[in-house]
Design brief:
single chain; mainly alpha; two-stranded antiparallel ribbon; 2 helices; Cell division protein FtsL; cell cycle; transmembrane; cell division; membrane
C-alpha cells in the first residue's frame, strides 16, 4: 500500500534551538521534453508509395465495378432478346402447323380452283 501513497521527502533543517525541525517538501515531477522526430527521405518515400498503392487499389476497384455493371447490363439485354426470339419462334411454329393442316390446304385448293385427284396421290410410309 505504501507504493500508492504520494511521494514526500522530509529534509532536516537546523534551527537555533538545536531541536529537530522537519519541513515537508512535496516531490516534483520532471517532465521530459521530447524533440520532434525528423522524417528522412525514406520515410517520405514510404508514405508516398503507400498512398499511391492505396489510391491505385481504389481506382482499380472502381474500374472493375463499372466493367461488371456494364457486362451485367449487356447480359440482361441479350437475355431479353433471346426470350423475344424464342416467343416469336413459337408463334411461327404454331402458324406453320395451322397452315399445313389438311383443312387449310383444302381451303387453299378450293379458293384457287384446284381439285384433288386421288390417282396422283402417293402415300409413303
Amino acid at each position: 500500500m505504501a507504493q500508492n501513497a504520494p511521494s514526500r521527502t522530509y529534509n532536516k533543517q537546523e534551527s537555533d534551538q538545536n531541536q529537530p525541525n522537519l519541513k515537508l517538501l512535496s516531490a516534483t515531477k520532471r517532465q521530459q521534453q521530447f524533440k520532434r522526430a525528423r522524417w528522412s527521405s525514406k520515410d517520405y518515400l514510404f508514405v508516398f508509395m503507400l498512398t499511391a498503392a492505396v489510391g491505385a487499389v481504389m481506382f482499380i476497384s472502381l474500374l472493375i465495378s463499372n466493367q461488371t455493371t456494364r457486362i451485367d447490363n449487356q447480359l440482361s439485354a441479350a437475355n431479353n432478346q433471346i426470350s423475344q426470339l424464342k416467343s416469336q419462334n413459337d408463334k411461327n411454329k404454331d402458324q406453320i402447323t395451322q397452315m399445313t393442316s389438311m383443312a387449310a390446304l383444302e381451303k387453299f385448293a378450293k379458293k384457287n380452283g384446284m381439285t384433288l385427284n386421288s390417282d396422283n396421290v402417293q402415300n409413303i410410309k
